[in-house]
Amino acid sequence: MDMVRIGMVGIVGILLAVPLKSYKAEYGIYMGIAVCLVVLGYAVQYFKGILDVMGQLHGYLENNYSYITLLLKAVGATYACEFCAGICKDAGYGGIAGQVEMVGKLYILLSGMPVLLALLESIQSLAG
Predict the structure, then answer these.
(1) Chain segment 6-42, per-residue pLDDT in tens
(2) DSSP letters along 60-119, please?
(3) Does the structure show a pLDDT above 70 at 1?
(4) Residue 43 reports pLDDT greater than 80
(5) Which of 83, 100, 91 has its CA nearest to residue 43?
(6) Domain ranges across the chain
């Protein structure tokens, strides 16, 4: 039911933004940003559930908490970049949106490197 509600917020926001955009372009952008913030508010509720599950995973990982931290950083960076890129695209700045997405991908790649190195060290120690 929540997804239907979020979809309706998006559709109503677009129906309000289109006439405003023809009147004054900046009003349409402001409406788009407002709708994005409302949807982000819904997403924060889901993040709380995810954090609860992460707390349960925390118990299983014993003293290796760095993997949970890495996972949360990657997910947070993904959502932040996607949110910013979406706003840039709506404002008509597709080039800036592409750059934001590229930097987000590079950040996630860089933050995942320690896991890759740990995996390679484990394989090397097993192989002898």
Answers:
(1) 888 888 888 888 888 788 878 888 888 888 888 888 8
(2) HTTT-THHHHHHHHHHHHHHHHHHHHHHHHHTT-HHHHHHHHHHHHHHHHHHHHHHHHHH
(3) no
(4) yes
(5) 83
(6) 1-60, 63-128
